[in-house]
Design brief:
about 325 residues, mainly alpha, 2 domains, 13 helices, about 0% strand, globular
Length: about 325
């Protein structure tokens, strides 16, 4: 049965409207056309659309809504199919992840340092000695006091940064995997980051020992570890759980993420690592702390998840405790 070009166009248009608009009307001669045309012609593909394409189309939508839904689903499939570890660049920190506005960043960080970090870290034990009426604190009391002090500092930091953060920002964003970065496993990043960090610290320690001689272990830390089981457990809780969580939320979660919105991620990692190292007020450990900050910063930029940073930080501190205990 012969049909002119105009008739075929009308048939195709009505068939497309039937698919997109949920119409059930079909011309009586459409079936005959379908079997006359070979499966490879464009007309047949219009008359019998691909079911993979139509699975996203609602039963009854107007054409604009249907088209937008279809395009959105296709884009999501393309992102999933093209999702490789390097398809989005090295840094996973995007504009929507920024917790603090640039004008609030340095004010909030200054408040944290002068109201929380310095008073609690450098004056906390003095306050405990004053409250207990003892001029000298035994190692167990020191360990328990440090645990309470660190928990108070962590709580104060969370309240301070939450108050100054964007209203829509949640702390859980620091620990949420980006669905576009499923290829970046934070567990693998933790293992690789910890191994690389230990290697770098070993090299710098070897170089420092060659140039300046061996450095003794921290006598206060060793005394706490050897004093009692309670002091050991308290020390482990402070250095392997509370402190990593506190420092990673502040220096990587808020500081590094906010800096990355105003500069390249490499510059943001370097600046945040310098601040992280300087805040410890330890000149002899400045280089090692800077290296630790750089490795942790790169790990966070790669995964966009603080779980990897906390794991690396905790493992590194645990290794330090083991070396101190057995040295």
């Amino acid at each position: 049965m012969g049909m002119d070009h105009a008739t075929v166009v009308v048939v195709i248009r009505r068939q497309m409207l039937s698919v997109l608009g949920g119409l059930r009307w079909q011309p009586p001669y459409a079936k005959s056309i379908r079997y006359q045309l070979p499966a490879t012609t464009p007309f047949y593909s219009f008359l019998r659309p691909n079911t993979n394409t139509l699975k996203y189309l609602p039963q009854r939508f107007n054409s604009r809504t249907c088209f937008n839904t279809y395009c959105k689903k296709i884009e999501e499939e393309q992102v999933t199919n093209n999702n490789t570890p390097f398809s989005h660049g090295f840094s996973a920190l995007k504009e929507e992840f920024i917790p603090l506005e640039s004008e609030n960043l340095w004010t909030t960080l200054s408040l944290y340092l002068f109201i929380l970090h310095i008073p609690f870290s450098f004056g906390g034990l003095s306050v405990v000695a004053l409250l207990t009426g003892e001029s000298f604190l035994d190692p167990q009391t020191k360990a328990l006091s440090l645990l309470i002090i660190q928990i108070l500092e962590l709580s104060g930091a969370l309240v301070l940064f939450k108050y100054n953060a964007k209203p829509q920002y949640e702390f859980t964003n620091f620990f949420t995997n980006n669905k576009l970065l499923n290829g970046r496993n934070w567990i693998v990043a933790s293992v690789l980051g910890f191994g690389f960090l230990v290697f770098l610290i070993f090299l710098t320690s070897l170089l420092a020992e060659t140039l300046f001689g061996s450095k003794p272990v921290n006598p206060i830390l060793k005394e706490i570890l050897l004093y009692s089981d309670i002091s050991r457990v308290s020390c482990v809780l402070v250095l392997c759980i509370v402190t990593p969580l506190l420092e990673e939320v502040v220096y990587r979660g808020f500081l590094l993420t906010s800096l990355s919105s105003t500069m390249e991620w490499q510059q943001a990692v370097a600046i945040s690592s310098i601040i992280f190292s300087a805040i410890h007020f330890s000149g002899e450990n400045f280089l090692q702390l800077f290296i630790v900050g750089c490795v942790l910063g790169c790990s966070y930029c790669w995964t966009g998840n603080l779980n990897s940073n906390i794991a690396i930080h905790s493992l590194y501190n645990a290794l330090t405790l083991i070396i101190t205990y057995y040295s």
